[in-house]
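Hi R.,

Here are the chain sequences for the assembly we discussed:
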Amino acid sequence: MLRWNEVSADAQAAALMRPAVSASVKVKEICQTIMANVKEQGDDALLAMAKEFDNRPTPRLLVPIEEINNAVQQLSPELRYAIDTAYANVKRFHQAQLPKDIKLTTQPGVLCELKYQAIEAVGLYVPGGSAALPSSVIMQGVLAQLSGAKTIVLATPVQGNAQINSAILYAAKLCGITTIVESGGAGAIAAMAYGTGSVPKVNKIFGPGNSFVTMAKQLVAQTIPGMAIDMPAGPSEVLVIADERANPEFIAADLLSQAEHGADSQVILLSNNELTIERTQHAIERQLAKLSRQDIAAKALANSSLILVDSIDQAFDVSAQYGPEHLILQLADANPYLGKVKNAGSVFVGDYTPESAGDYASGTNHVLPTYGYSATYSSLNLLDFFRTYTVQTITQNGLKNLSKAILPLADAEGLDAHANAVKVRLEAMNRGNE
Amino acid sequence: MLRWNEVSADAQAAALMRPAVSASVKVKEICQTIMANVKEQGDDALLAMAKEFDNRPTPRLLVPIEEINNAVQQLSPELRYAIDTAYANVKRFHQAQLPKDIKLTTQPGVLCELKYQAIEAVGLYVPGGSAALPSSVIMQGVLAQLSGAKTIVLATPVQGNAQINSAILYAAKLCGITTIVESGGAGAIAAMAYGTGSVPKVNKIFGPGNSFVTMAKQLVAQTIPGMAIDMPAGPSEVLVIADERANPEFIAADLLSQAEHGADSQVILLSNNELTIERTQHAIERQLAKLSRQDIAAKALANSSLILVDSIDQAFDVSAQYGPEHLILQLADANPYLGKVKNAGSVFVGDYTPESAGDYASGTNHVLPTYGYSATYSSLNLLDFFRTYTVQTITQNGLKNLSKAILPLADAEGLDAHANAVKVRLEAMNRGNE
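And here is the predicted structure of the full complex:
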């Protein structure tokens, strides 16, 4: 337990320090080689990599549509209900985010519009295709579907003789995805970025992945004009703010549900009550012993901090400084504090709102900014699948009036031709009026 | 003149090819050195660079507030009116973009919210501080002001004994900007990214600039966690689609107003009428001879294409393929075609809507995606100064129902602790009901 007000600023900063994430030069070089191969040899490169890296004896690139359609038959009724419910809630919440065009006359005769255009072709990456990670499909696929993107490609890796998990295929089907590529890592990213014989070229690539996927996404965004990616990805993290009446079992369970994600996950508890922190420590020990991923969770806990603060107000200041991906508020009444929330990816309010609700099924998106990016980056939302552009339409009289603003500015900036584009039109109007 | 349907696909692609833009390794190394200096030595590094690179005998970093307040006295009434009008129109159009939070119950007891948070500290870069470029201040500053950002820093370079132009200072004052840094290039970007004694650290940096500014922006975004930048910057471009009744003088003036921006600008004309193209060529020659920046414009024209297409429909297809920053439609009736607009930054509709209207004063933003980025990137808009995050609040009954979606998904993904965070709560509810 760290007593926030009794340690130096350096010790405070150290407690909020994230494990360093540095992509090795080697990862970059491997990605560049893979990207060059895929760019030149297309499908052949993907097939060769499937044999070499994924041990696929007879690799194929695209999942036949019947397999996608029939996947539902492999699911238990409970899992099917869960996927259907998650899909419906996520769809409902993101449908409410559908953007509306704006049309406004800024001054007489000058009409300005802001319009939304769906990004035409999007690529969705889902890690670990043979494991069941349907939530990752839903959190990306629903948005692509709602945007009306013309082309949606989903890529996921498959090893050995395994097949893509039925839960993934069923979730993809719900999202209207028919192009599913059995390929992973930097090769899959390159295939979607450049296009191959089988894989359509996309404009923007979404989704989490290992260091090769992350690096390949960065490289295609940096080197291919017009190519975009969703957001920088880092290890997952949660910060819990709990008062003296919070249930230590709930706090411990929330911290552990984050810690089991990966050894590099980070969990932080801030409380104004020493006993709450002590009891949470005991609850963590009890619960950890029963987890199947206890080794991973234990490693993550080693990077983590339980911090005693003076007040709940101070906890919100510390949280804003850290900028957590997930922020859980186990407070008697969180309402007075909600205005103090800053730099969080997604907030979970009250004793009965665990992070796993948002991870799977509440309706919010689980793709969130990590590693301090929550000061500037958004939670994944429907607008990430759109771009905006503007339109202006000016009448003759509108231009006549507006010329009094344009001409002095063009003159001041020494741009004759900018002024001339207005002047030739004013002259034409004058000739027309003669 | 290129006859689109009479040349090979390669020749078509070549006609739409943008001049290559490659940042040299040297530019990158210089930026890295400058960034390291500013990070370590702060203000001292900025002052040393002002002496060395900008020939400032007695450099200062911040403009005193009285100078900002008094700048209006140096302006002609015409220029003041122009700045006031541009400010008002840009403000009106961007105010209409203020986002609204979303609140939605996705299923009983499960409340989901999407909330907007202004990015707290933003940095605005304006090139050429001693030249009058007030439009660049307005196009960034109005948005920062409307967002309610707590900290707004404007940086602009000044050479020798010159002062920051009064038009810039006055535009900044209108936008409520009080922190103006007399510093340019990679040093200014580093100062805003790291913070110095005089320059506040910001979260996101906006604005155009030369290759050093562009490179420094990329480097700070890549290396400082949480740091963001507006969009990749490239040379400016316009594409005009004109029918047989379009006025060649107008077309020529629009092409030249783009060409005068820089030798690397690109201008393209698409018309279905050979005579229109020929007459435009003559008009370009006549108008070019009278321009003060004719050397620059002539160089840009050398990279450019006048293309004869079969139909206006085909022109829109070619335009979508190119993805122009500015798209001008000089058509008898553009309305039937507006649905075909794709991958454009800003669209100018009709004979009396020159690009210079949008560059300065119509109300739309002149910071636009270039170099093909218009397939994925937005025109600068108010949301670029905000981020979104989500909030969920779940009741006991809400969680009970939602658990039927969460638990099978957590089980399928093998994440015990995720399931346990729900189970400990269900158990507590059951105990409470006993």
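Chain B is about 45% helix and 15% strand. Chain B has three domains: 2-18+234-363, 25-229, 395-433.

Let me know if anything looks off.

Best,
T.
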